[in-house]
């Protein structure tokens, strides 16, 4: 086992960056990049995205990784509704809200989808373990909002609406300041 791999095995994180490796290795950056490339080719470490690697893909919190590789972002839409058991269908992709450009990333057959929302709608999330996730009511409204322009699939028949705090939905709905959304939510929930 190479010295670099021994150093990597002492990293307490599920994934690590080139910057992390440069802190623990005495190799110069060009040499470090070559050593990492060789370790990836030999299957000793796994490249996730440019500059991020892991020793074991099964130890990764995909939510944490997704929030960190494209920030600011938080888990929302179908993924958050699925997490809270509101959505009855399993999700294919991990879906996140961002106020940056929309983006799709595939990492080892795992799909991460970032959907753009306006900056003034970038709120209503909490810290859960090691990532950010929308509150159930905000995820519900985020998805409904995106569906107005065909960017999301909003089907209340696939949801357990009893798990939502209807007063919080009303309060949050006012912050969206959107008549079409208000009409959709009022016909769905109230």
Description:
By secondary structure, the protein is α+β, with helices and mostly antiparallel strands. The protein folds into 2 domains: 3-59, Winged helix-like DNA-binding domain superfamily/Winged helix DNA-binding domain (Arc Repressor Mutant, subunit A, Orthogonal Bundle), CATH 1.10.10; 62-189, no CATH class. Helix content is 40%, strand content 20%. It has 8 helices and 9 strands. The chain has helices at 3-9, 18-24, 29-41, 62-69, 77-83, 136-147, 166-176, 179-189, and strands at 15-17, 46-49, 52-54, 73-75, 94-98, 103-107, 110-116, 125-128, 131-134. The strands form 3 sheets. A 4-stranded mixed β-sheet has the order 4-5-7-6. A 3-stranded antiparallel β-sheet has the order 1-3-2. Strand 8 and strand 9 form a beta hairpin. Helix 6 crosses helix 7 (166-176) and helix 7 (166-176) packs antiparallel against helix 8. It is elongated, with a radius of gyration of 20 Å. The chain starts with a helix and ends with a helix. The relative contact order is 0.11.
**Number of beta strands:** 9
Number of DSSP helices? 8
Give the uncertain stretches in residue-range form.
none
In which range does the helix fraction lie? Answer: 40-55%
What is the overall shape?
elongated
List SSEs in N-to-C order: HEHHEEHEHEEEEEHHH
Strand content: 15-25%
């Amino acid at each position: 086992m190479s010295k670099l791999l021994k150093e990597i095995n002492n990293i307490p994180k599920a994934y690590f960056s080139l910057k992390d490796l440069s802190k623990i290795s005495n190799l110069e950056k060009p040499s470090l990049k070559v050593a990492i490339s060789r370790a990836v080719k030999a299957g000793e470490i796994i490249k996730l995205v440019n500059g991020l690697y892991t020793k074991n893909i099964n130890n990764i919190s995909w939510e944490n990784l997704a929030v960190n590789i494209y920030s600011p972002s938080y888990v929302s839409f179908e993924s958050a509704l699925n997490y809270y058991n509101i959505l009855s269908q399993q999700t294919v992709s991990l879906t996140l809200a961002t106020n940056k450009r929309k983006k799709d990333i595939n990492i080892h057959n795992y799909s991460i989808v970032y959907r753009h929302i306006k900056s003034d709608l970038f709120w209503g999330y909490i810290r859960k373990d090691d990532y950010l996730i929308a509150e159930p009511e905000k995820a519900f409204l985020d998805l409904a909002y995106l569906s107005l322009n065909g960017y999301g699939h909003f089907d209340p028949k696939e949801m357990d609406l009893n798990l939502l705090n209807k007063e919080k939905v009303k309060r949050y709905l006012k912050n969206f300041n959107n008549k079409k959304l208000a009409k959709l939510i009022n016909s769905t929930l109230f």
